[in-house]
Structure formats: C-alpha cells, structure tokens
Amino acid sequence: MRAEEAKAPFSLAAIQEHEKEVAMRIETSDFRVHPGHGVHLERRPTRVEPVYKSKDQYHKILAEHVERLSEQQNRLYADNRFSVLLILQAMDAAGKDGAIKHVMSGVNPQGCQVYSFKHPSAAELQHDFLWRTTRDLPERGKIGIFNRSYYEEVLILRVHPDLLTAEGLSEAAGIGEAIWDGRYRSIVEFENHLSRNDTHIVKLFLHLSEEEQRKRFLDRIDDPAKNWKLSAADVEERKFWPQYMDAYERCLSATSTELAPWYVVPADDKENARLIVSQIVLDTLEALKLGYPKADAEKRKELLAIRTRLEKDAKPD
Fold first, then answer.
1. Terminus of the chain with fewer CB atoms < 10 Å: N or C?
2. What is the pTM of this model?
3. Domain boundaries along the sequence of the chain
4. pLDDT tens-digit profile of 214-268?
5. d(C-alpha 60, C-alpha 63), whole Å
C-alpha cells in the first residue's frame, strides 16, 4: 500500500456519505425582492432544491437555527436598543402558523409577541388602515410577529374592492388605482419611520402553488384534527387566485425597500421553507451586532459591594 493511501482518513464510501449529510448553504439574498425590480411570481419557484438531505438533517439544522435565534433574542432583549418586526403574508395553507411555531420554538415568550389579524372590527374600521396594527408594534428589545398585517388592506381589499365600502372613505382617499398607490406610499413612509426609530422590519411572502394548496385542503378534510382549519369560504377564494397573484405582485414591487425588504420564500416544501425563514431572521438579527451591556467602573464597584454583602450572609454548613 502506498504511504498516501495509508494516511487517508476516510474511505470513498465514507466521503460520499458525508457529502450527503452536508447541507446546502442558504443564500437568503436569492429570495429577496430588490427595490425597483418588478415581481413576477410565475418566474419565482414555489419549490427549490431542499437545504436538507434527510429528515434527520432537517431537524438538526432547525435545532441549530433555533438555538442561535434564542441566543440572538437574549442579546436583543439585553441590548434594549432595537426591536424586530417580522411580517408573514401568504395564501391560505401556505404554512405561516407552522413557520412561527417551529422557527420561534426556542425563543423566550417574554421577548416575542405574535399577533394574528383577522377581519377588522367595527371600532377598527373607524380609524385609518394602519391604526389597528400600530397598537401592537414590538417594543425595544422584543420581536413582534404579524401573522397577516396591514398588507391585507392592499391584498384582499384589492381583490374584493367592495369591502372598502365599510371603511367609509371619502373621495380624497382616492378612486380606482389612486387609492392603492396612496396606500403603498403610506406603508413605505410608515416603515421608513419605524426603521429610523430602530425597528428592523423583515417581510416574508410564503409562495405556495395553487396545486399544493389544493392538496393541503384535501389533507385538512382527511385529518379530523385539521377539519376546523377549512371552510367553504376558503375553497371559494381559490376562484380568485389570479387576482391574488396580481395583487401580491403589485404590492411586493411597490413596498420592498432596502430598510424593509420582502422575501419570496418557496413554500411547497414546508420544512425547507422553515429553514429559509429561520435563516432570514437569523441574518437580520446577526447583522445588528448585538451584545450584552458591559458594566462600567461604577457598575463593577456596585457589583463587588453586592458580592461582599452576599458572601457575609453565607450560612455555615
């Protein structure tokens, strides 16, 4: 046997097996909507090559992401200068709830708040369209998650403009296309304001195919534990799929900015989508360069005095 062969630490089979277990690197920029670039959803995939090679590897990667997210959230809370707003939008059954549940599973509940916005109440309809979500923005040191958001006002209302009647708007609010352009501007200006005041915004559109939604709806019928998730109204909305895609394209194109970017996440593979989402959130938090506050000389003096006092209070064994 040649010397170089004797020194080889792995067999060819072992190397091949190792390569199978190596996860693909998640380049989150691949999913980002860059300002000024029109969005064409038919050109963006709803399924990409999986980041993971096996279910076991998926769980390992997710566990690693969750652990890192937990550490970053602790730093965010201790640093107490920034807040993070995570917005999820999608068609029904795209996996928003599952992404929140699995990706944020290790985050301290005291530092993370989740809000789901359904149809506005009568009282909420008496205010401007940004009012009801503004009340629930995250405070410094916390992560806020909007499961649907103020973006519903330029999505479902664009598909069903008759719903605008309930808002009692005057002609000054705009007519036809002008109302949507005005709302896009209001959203961008609002998010710029939040960014200037240290709220970092990440917006995720879980991009689901119409066929995958059909399959997931059937699964909700077949699984008794999921029956409650489906109604006739959900199925009825499928008739408006092209209109929803058009509304999303216009919205994403008009409101993705450098300060508050949109990401189009392929969602036909739930596990893969969760890993992409968790990596996007991680990138956002790690970019803040968060750290634990360092004690100055006065604080160290105070802590040493406390230590002396506590040591004196020690009870004999």
1. C
2. 0.89
3. 22-292
4. 999 999 999 999 999 999 999 999 999 999 999 999 999 999 999 999 999 999 9
5. 5
